[in-house]
Amino acid sequence: MTKQSEPGIDTLKDTVARALRGAVEGGATAAEAGASFGTGLSVSVRMREVETLEYHRNQGLSLTVYFGKRKGNASTSDLSDSAVEETVRRACGLATYAAEDDFAGLADPDRLATTIPDLDLYHPWSIEPHQAIELATEWEAAALDADARITNSEGATVGSGAGCRVYGNTNGFLDGYRESQHNLSCAVLAGADGHMERDFDYTVSRVPEELTGPVAIGTEAAKRALARLGARKLTTRTAPVLFPARLARGFFAHLLGAISGGSQYRKSTFIPDCVDTQVLADFVTIEERPHLRAALGSAPFDDEGVATHDRRLVDSGVITGYVLSSYYARKLGLATTGNAGGVHNLVVADTGKTYADLLADMGTGLLVTELIGQGVNPVTGDYSRGAVGFWVENGELQYPVNEITMAGNLQDMYRSIAGIGNDVDLRGGIRTGSVLLEEMTIAGN
Which domain holds residue 153? Predict the structure, then answer.
């Protein structure tokens, strides 16, 4: 493709600036716009045959205009002059129908980023389709050939994407950055005695050279599926529970939802008005680290152009602040925390324990390897989810278990954290090791 067909940051800046000028000329008292462009390749192989091969090319512009306290928004995937002009007209027209909202508007000028650090987020992968097919075929074969009991596959995939994004507003902010993300995954099924079990493994990184090797991914997927064969049911009981690192991310994601501005303003959270309140075990510390180099959650500014910065969200189990955009910050009488669009690299401090240490500390209990369903009530904190895993005795895995339900309440669960492992999973925006809980109800037979 030519450079003309692949707009870079400067081209996107021109597009955003053009939209903002048009909005002001159309009578808007303020405006903000974001533009992005990206390309990518996706390949999937199933049972040693190519199943899909896709090339992606995405671009877009989103414009929000303010006429006093009335807001209008319009977007387009066409970045031509005429399409931008039409988007401006649409946004301005919609604003005339909107109700006034005293909290609507741009981020405060003194909160906007003034310097844009290079966070090393852009590492394009010059992989050709035939090379991606070879990789996917290689790691699916590693899984299929690992054991005769691996009888089927949901496929192996290769995904690669890179692009850039720009944000600007009429308070004088206009900047952007480039980024990339690549991933490999494999899911297979193991069968024995008329029973089938499925499991998977994956790797994701902004840097292609840091992806886990395909053979290792395929072999691990097969190993996990095989380990689940012969699963038993448990009788109903209470016992300690260990979330491995790849599931512990979701455990802390519920906390983020609870301290978000929208949840706090609407009181639709199990921990309302919780700043300076002990919510987690007193040794738990959680920080936001937006500027970690090449990390998946890193960003120099948020979706409103507000500068991102390091901060501590949980200090010795105490909530120190909420996760706020400008809109909900105003509703709560607070200041934005630079979290329009979400958090950027949540880092949960470990307690110096290895994964093996946590198993030993648990002694007898449940190691969860998969959660099923969405049985979490964000308002009450009630937690009830189907689960698959392993029963553990004397710190050693005894046998796989399935068809069980784990139940509790998030308030109790956060306070009952007994340890956090140093086996940190870096494959997402929440960085945490395994988490051991003192006790949960496990419903079975």
Answer: 3-226
The model's pLDDT over 140-166, given as tens digits with 9 standing for 90+, comes to 999 999 999 999 999 999 999 999 999
Last residue of a domain, one of 167, 196, 226: 226
Contacts of 375 (CB under 8 A, 6+ apart): 382, 383, 384, 385, 386
Domains contained in the chain, number: 2
Say whether both 335 and 429 belong to one domain: yes
Q: Say if residue 60 is in the same domain as residue 74.
A: yes
Q: Supply the pTM of this predicted model.
A: 0.93
Cα separation, 306 vs 379, in Å, equals 29
Give the separation between CA 307 and CA 112, rounded to whole angstroms: 5
- 55 and 32 assigned to the same domain: yes
Same domain, 441 and 328: yes
User: DSSP strand E in 206-316: where?
Assistant: 237-243, 286-288, 311-315
The predicted-structure confidence for 223-251, as pLDDT tens digits, reads as follows 999 999 999 999 999 999 999 999 999 99
Q: What are phi and psi of 332, to 5 degrees?
A: -95, 0
Q: Which helix (H) or strand (E) holds 87?
A: helix 81-95
Q: How far is it, in rounded angstroms, from Cα 24 to Cα 17?
A: 11
DSSP 8-state class, residue 277: -
Residue 193 has pLDDT above 90, yes or no: no
Answer with the one of 226, 246, 269 that is the final residue of a domain: 226
Residues 262 and 292 in one domain: yes
CA–CA distances in Å: residue 406 to residues 319, 365, 416: 26, 12, 15
Question: So what's the pLDDT on residue 44?
Answer: 97
